[in-house]
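Hello K.,

You asked for the raw outputs rather than the summary table, so here they are, unedited. I folded two proteins back to back in the same session to keep the settings identical. This is the first:
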Amino acid sequence: MCFLKAGPVSDCNARAKLLSYPENRCAGGMDVRGRRDPNFIIHWLRDLLCGALIGAGAILPGVSGGVLAVAFDLYRPFMEVLTSPRTAIPRYWKWFLPLALGWAVGFLGFAKGIAACMDISTTVTTWLFIGLIVGTVPSLYREAGKEGRTLSAWVSFFLCALAVFTGLFYMGRVAEFHVEPNFWWYNFCGVLWGMGIVIPGMTSSSVMMALDLYQPMLEGLARLDLLVLSAALPGMFLTILLLARLVTWFFRVHYPIAFHGILGFVIASTLAIVPEDYRSAGEVLLSIVCALAGFLLAFFLARLDRRIQTA
């Protein structure tokens, strides 16, 4: 995947040689040479699953939907659609359906299941999410180094990691800052979701947990509460539209700095939500099992993505 100016496929071919999944096929199951894609069904199901995980990533603690979009090689095409819709939509519109359906299932459908899991054990559920995000770190590390690892890139990594970890730790465990949920705070949650989608590594759910907004927001989504939806969704979509061009420019001009900063965000936000309290030895064991399951799921999807790219 490369972060270049939106344009014809040839703009990326010089560097990617048609190896990137969204770039080596067109909408409707055709590849760039006009041939029927033999893996069209696999691609469609993959898009559906990736859309579900990206949607779920917007509400899972410690997980960024944008990070998962990067790991699944869907981030750049998504940004192309936002910044250059005239050229990007004709290329990608026919695989909007599986991604949109998957995103809706992940964002709205998972909310009820996640709320139920967190009612049973917040600790075990959080460890499942930690395993999922840690499983994406190898892919993120490779992506961050595609244009080198300069001193400024490592400075960006450490500064972002320190800022995120310190901020989340202070709000959640030192200051214990909490707010009363209302329309404007739900709108703020939507803004955080939008930032988490456009800026890979922005952990919106972790911030909501630190502010004690996560549980009421999740319950509102689970029952399709009109107040929550009418406040959060407009805030999310408006933030995505406003930030898309700025983020695209920054990646194009300062790629190593941007992506190493993202890597710092991911690692720090994961460390900030590690549970400290356990009710029993059984909960500790189940937490370990769920963390491994999350890691293996993310790792398997990354390998599947690379296999499809080289098929």
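The second followed immediately with the same parameters:
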Amino acid sequence: MSLFATNGFYLRNIALRNIALRNIALRNIALRNIALRNIALRNIALRNIAAAVSFLLLPMMFRTASPVRPAFEHIFVIVLEKNDYAAVQKDAYFAQLAARGQLLTNYWALTHPSQPNYIAMIFGDVMSVTNSANYDIAGRNLVEQLEAHELSWKTYQENYPGNCCTKSFEGPEMLYGRKHNPFISADSVRTNPQRCARIVDAAALDADIAADALPNFSFYAPNKWHNAHNS
């Protein structure tokens, strides 16, 4: 074989090797680009996931926790009337009560005379009551809401004669007044003997306290001598 032929063979091998090396380099570049692209796609995906997680978590991070409301075993409402706040505030006994508990200074009656305000206490509305006449009222009220939550209730009415009395005034010297007993005006109470039995004379209160039998919700209405109306 001639030197030229030998050199030609040698050069051809070099050319083939260079082509192979170039192909390897191109393949490596391609693989590197693919790897970089995959890394970029992965980063984009991770960034999107992070953004999605942030979107979901931010409302939870910044959401204010619901205030914890105290649970009361007993709520006892005593209704006195016909005196201005300024006058009551000066009474030593009521001042002492206010100091021991929570004083609500933005609590107002809805209207005049008394009965519509009593009605609103259990119906959440005056229910078109405008005077002191007898009213028989249909509609959802506090009694039904209490019973729906398995909470007991009773109303203590001073000098109430019992037997689901529906008269306007009753008892010695007409001390009991129906207008101060909103429960008897509720159809769902007055026409239901079991519920009506929860309207009792206030004299029953001492016995219930002694027997540890106070209901979850108590409503106490003094008679016309004791409700501060004329004091």
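The mean pLDDT is 81.

Happy to rerun anything if the numbers look odd on your end.

Regards,
P.
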